Amino acid sequence: MSNQPVSRPNSPTGSAKTDLAITVVLIAIAIALPFFVDSRYVMGQIVLALFYATIASQWNLLFGFSGIFSLAQMAIFAFGGYATAMICFYFGWNVWAAVVPGAVGAMIFSLAVGLACLRLTGVYVALLTLAIAQTMYQLIVTDTECFTMVGSICRQFTGGAVGFARFGELGTRALLKGQWLVGNYAIVATLFAITMLFTYAIIKSPIGLAFRALKDNPGYAVARGVNRFQAQLLVFGISAFFTGLAGGFYAAHFQAIGPGILSMSQLMFIIAVVVVGGVGTFWGPLVGTVILVAADELMREAGEFRTFGLGIIIALSIILMPKGLVGRLGDLVRWSRKRGQAAHREKLAESPAPAGE
């Protein structure tokens, strides 16, 4: 084996100073938004976009940084939402007490999915996880057996095709009255910030380096002592906890959760967000969310064309920007720096030597 040092690839998050500057700007924008947005519809779309960005960031951790092409991300999100709703509905818990157990339930579910995928790679992981997600959807919508009576209404265990509604809320309506949506925005924005902070710490840690090594060169990573099975289960669990937590807050924000969240269009949207923003880039999911939420609003009146339109956006992004928008911007910045350094060296070479030398 060669004794030459192994050079690390360029950081997928950029320099720490750049990330810190971007973070400060985003925090300032997040704080200022409620003062400039007076439309309840627009604020509601911003909250929804934050949920999408949170899910996309964790799918990016799973696929972009670890190379696991799972299609069960929306199933995990739905599991967290359903678990939170069912805990509140059947046990009468407060939403705030139920979201963490719901997230833990989603993590356990994801670990079971991870165990099923341990000996699979590539497209086989995608097919199995998609089958699991579709099975979950079918189990919910075909659940017609009466589990309990609520007044004169028979309720299924999973809520069936109707789902769950009015099982609890975040408490902002009673506390903030007409400004409850701003309160929910603050809660979801904080959840997104914590998720991104934790993801950043994982990416920058030795664990994150092991994830990227398994993605880029599995054979070499295993030869250097990285346990692929343990790493795969770990990233499944980390990604699922925050995805499930987002699912719980999603259900609480809308006071409803149903099988529609498992639709193929929702999954396509999350994939499109990451691809357009930049697979394997830290800020890609956020940038992709901003772009595609705006595009989705423009296509909302197009009906079924929405899914087709997202497919076109994904195809064009893959062809024109294989690294996504953030990846392309990173390449441009590095190219600009190299040109500047080359110009500086040429200027030094052309400058006359000091007198007396």
Put the structure in a nutshell:
The chain is mainly α and 357 residues long. The chain has helices at residues 16-36, 40-64, 73-91, 95-116, 123-141, 172-176, 180-204, 206-216, 218-223, 228-254, 264-277, 284-299, 305-320, 324-350; strands at 148-150, 153-155, 164-165, 256-257. The protein folds into 2 domains: 16-261, no CATH class; 263-349, no CATH class.
Keywords:
357 residues, mainly alpha, 2 domains
Assess the beta-strand content as a share of residues: under 5%
Strand order of the largest sheet: 1-2
Question: Main sheet?
Answer: 2 strands, antiparallel
User: Spans with pLDDT under 50 lasting ≥5 residues?
Assistant: 1-10
| Strand/helix succession | HHHHHEEEHHHHHEHHHH
Distance from first to last alpha carbon: 48 Å
Structural class: mainly alpha
Summed over residues and divided by their number, the pLDDT gives a mean of 87
Give the tally of structural domains. 2
Number of helices: 14
Total strands? 4
Shape descriptor: globular
Oligomeric state of the chains in view: single chain
Q: What is the share of helical residues?
A: over 70%
Q: Which value, in Å, is the CA radius of gyration? A: 23 Å
